[in-house]
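#onboarding

Welcome to the new folks! Below is a worked example of what a typical request in this channel looks like: someone posts a single protein sequence, and someone else replies with the predicted structure as tokens. Don't worry about understanding the tokens yet, we'll cover that in week two.

Example request:
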Amino acid sequence: MQQPFAAENNADERAATRRLFRWVIGGVSALTVGLLAVMVVVQRSPDFYRTAVAPGESAAAESLARRMVSKAAALHAASGRSGPWEAVIRDSEVNAWLAVDLPRNHGRLLPEGVESPRISFQSRRVAVAARMTIGPVSAVVWAEMEVWLQGVNQVGLKPVAAGLGGLPVPRDAMLRHLAGRLSAAGLVTDLRRTQGGLLLVVSPPASFDAAAGNCRLESLAVDAGELLVAGSTPQPADGVDLP
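Example response:
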């Protein structure tokens, strides 16, 4: 007499098992599709990064890299002498140096897992990016920032956007991380909260003293493809020799 009930219970159990199986399969499928979608988005990179100087040692890249080295040496020499100085630096020159000279001669400057950094000068903005590899995952980390001269030897930075591939990254977190890196390098950093969001002001170390003949950054302009910097180096105080 109880057999129909047992058969009924078995049918209910089989139906419940099938529903659970469908839910599990559906969940795994959704998770798989989601992970694949995230991987596709992460693999995206900013337009400027894709069009920057490709890694390699072509004649054009070598020439641009040498020009960057020459400009840096000339700027260093000029800023070490009393009087005004200025320089115009193009992002194509910087990217050539990053693609050719950096891995060849200064590879230890990059943190472990970071490679192929690139930069783009835009109107009043600077965009930077690099490929970061953590285990099997590799993606381009990038940030776009407004850049201006806050005061003599004070550079202001405000993030416009940041991301890991096509995934957005919180701008304030990115700026705090950048401030920590710059502080570790010996620069003075000041994070300020404004109505427009968080901004960072970067200054030379406290030991940097213009009275001792150190240079003064007095002008900074970022335009499409180029960066203009200008300033002056005062006469050193009595008894202090320029390096």
